[in-house]
Amino acid sequence: MKQYDVVGIGNAIVDVISTEHEDFIEELGLARGAMTLIDTERAVELYAAMGPGSETSGGSAANTMAGVASFGGTAGFIGKVRNDQLGEVFRHDIRALGVDFDVDGADEGPSTARCLIVVTPDAARTMSTYLGIAGHLHPEDIDTELASMAKVLYCEGYIWDVDITKEAIRKAIEATKAAGNKISFTLSDAFCVQRHHDEWLDLVDGTIDILFGNQTELAALTGTDDWDACVAAVQGKVEVACLTRSAEGSLIVTADERIFVPAAPVEKVVDTTGAGDLYAAGFLYGYTHGLDLATCGELASLAAAEVIGHLGARPLVNLAELAAPVLESRSSEPQV
Amino acid sequence: MKQYDVVGIGNAIVDVISTEHEDFIEELGLARGAMTLIDTERAVELYAAMGPGSETSGGSAANTMAGVASFGGTAGFIGKVRNDQLGEVFRHDIRALGVDFDVDGADEGPSTARCLIVVTPDAARTMSTYLGIAGHLHPEDIDTELASMAKVLYCEGYIWDVDITKEAIRKAIEATKAAGNKISFTLSDAFCVQRHHDEWLDLVDGTIDILFGNQTELAALTGTDDWDACVAAVQGKVEVACLTRSAEGSLIVTADERIFVPAAPVEKVVDTTGAGDLYAAGFLYGYTHGLDLATCGELASLAAAEVIGHLGARPLVNLAELAAPVLESRSSEPQV
After folding, report:
1. Digit-coded pLDDT (tens) for A233-279
2. What topology does CATH give the domain B4-11+59-110+133-331?
3. Kind and range of the H or E run holding B5
4. Please, which residues have CB within 8 angstroms of residue B47's CB and are 6 or more apart in sequence?
5. Which terminal CB of chain B, N or C, has fewer other CB atoms within 10 Å?
6. Percentage of residues in chain B having pLDDT higher than 90
7. Contacts of A96 in chain B (CB under 8 A)
């Protein structure tokens, strides 16, 4: 039976990216740096105000699966597109990377999800998501056999925003757990954490094996701005917590270890979209290949650095090639 | 009555760009560096073989109008999209730059045109165009009032490939001519020149005022590989011929002058898609603002250099800002 390194479940989204002046954020009343869900009317208004864009496949968990595949890992994706042009683009792009994506597209209903991403001169991204058909991922769309074949199931926090998709993700989690495999989860966005705070604290306590989150998300979850208190609040609750702090690097935390991982150098930060997604990709590739946690962290930082060096949330280079020097130096170290 | 600096007529296309290894061109049987028209079946086959792509608005004349608007000129566009997602993207992007584009989208028929662009490590682009609804631009889609308000009508050679669109463009040309305004024309592609050789020689002889072409296109038109013979063959036939030679710069030719314009420096050539289109934009902006031909050429080179420095066929920066130092230095020169 085929086994996957990672199967991701999340919103299948095409990103529409434009670069705008700093004032744009305020003029349009956007929540800087956050992800906001928008309806059709707001999507039309916002898109009309945006400059010329470029469209690339996105979606948080989908970006992570693209990254795992680019490292040479085996990956699958569960999410919902409509059978429209952007749905075709999404399906093409993720499959072109070797990620298995076989959820049927919808012949009717709202269109494929779009995320309107405004990148400002400080390289920050502000995201407005029109969920469309992505919010119609139903439990019957879940291939439980696929979920059970994943060494690690990767769950996107964003998907908690719709009741039916939450039901779908819970079904996938059960299938993976039943097969004795691991659950990883990303906190996605600080506002998203606030919306689902109590449920997610429950998940951290018993369901999640590998947790990903950045400083603001962790603060929202733990209710404290103090970094050490944040770290202490999750340490030991999950098998591994990967806690990121942008340019200040990240901390990989187990019950009895805290491993600091510096951020990898970037010549020029152009667009931070996808940084967390690709960090998770690097970590999960390493984790599912039995690498030590420090090396997992190094791959994570490397992938995050690649994706923030250009517009768009998926790697533009082959991550296996990018990671080769790291992996070679590790394998030549004396084994203890 | 409003007057436009330039109105362009051409295929309304969304580009799908992927970067591929050198071997891809041969494996897929593509004509390196050229533009080939493809049918649905071939489009499906080729797209399936391509890696993950990014979608940006394109189309030769549309790129030129985007460039004119980015320089601060007034521009309109005539072309056909379908009312589908890619049609919406095309319309949004060109309008976001301030280009007037009011041709009704089609509610039925084939989809919005797509150009599958493969960029190889040498930065060359090989284009396969699925024309779709763009090939259904009918004479009744031509707003003759708009065409007559253009100081210069800019015509894309590519549009000659379909009889009905050729009829449409001839109608636009007549309207512009009748208003006493100028006709500019780009030879587009050497194979395209071969397909319409005799008709285009006729156009050069009496219809076209401003001609754009590169070395291979000019060789196909004039039937000689000898550069000086090429130049001599068109000199004096049109008011101005802008003859480009990639990194070797260009020659601006009138009945009694040959002005050499060096190529503007580029740090790294990434993707040559749009080089000719943006060259034409710079020239036409200068020409419609009464600048001397050498300055027109300088703006042309500047715009071409910008667009080949990144993926995609439209400028990523404001060309008016980019051109400001050139225009300031010219205006401060002593007037004769």
Report:
1. 999 999 999 999 999 999 999 999 999 999 999 999 999 999 999 99
2. UDP-N-acetylmuramoyl-L-alanine:D-glutamate ligase (3.40.1190)
3. strand B4-9
4. A92, B16, B116
5. C
6. 97
7. 18, 50-53
